[in-house]
Amino acid sequence: MTLILPFSENFFFMLKVEHIGIAVKSLETSIPLFEKLLNTACYKMETVESEAVATAFFQKGETKIELLESTTENGVIQKYIEKKGEGIHHLAFEVADIAGEMERLKSEGFVLLNEVPKVGADNKLVCFLHPKITNSVLIELCQERKQSANENRQ
Asked: Residue 60 forms beta bridges with which residues?
């Protein structure tokens, strides 16, 4: 008996929800709030200069929460908050092969916001899908970056 699967023979797919991104006005205010809410400490803070965003990460079990604060007055997160207020900004899915998954989704008619993966927070390569095609939900694809020998020595 042959099993026929409803997706491509290359088996590029989303592995799991990697994190939920939440836009906030202030990490200083939001970190203590989420520490109380989740009953866990923020395990990592990082600034992604290319995106003009400061991030703070929390983890409960397999679930990660990423708080996002704009580092500039005209940053993407600042514009989002001005338009929609604080709240859920994106859903991120872990993928095994980001380039392959980007190619698959593009061939399925999805619009990518970047044509090549970018370096994001938490040691990830990332790509976003245009929310006009995903029912107004910003979707992020992310894959763990492989570190070079030079990065491993630091």
From this structure: 63
Q: How far is it, in rounded angstroms, from Cα 59 to Cα 47?
A: 18
Q: What pTM value is reported for the model?
A: 0.85
Could you read off the pLDDT of 85-101 as tens digits, one per residue?
999 999 999 999 999 99
Selection from 99, 77, 103, 78 nearest residue 90 by Cα:
77
Say which DSSP state 85 is in.
Answer: -
d(CA 62, CA 132): 29
Report how far residue 23's alpha carbon sits from residue 87's, in angstroms, rounded to the nearest whole number: 5
Q: How far is the C-alpha of 105 from the C-alpha of 109, rounded, in Å?
A: 7
Smallest CA-to-CA distance from 140 within 106, 87, 95, 96 is with 95
CA 11 to chain centre: 21
Cα(144)–Cα(136) distance, integer angstroms: 26
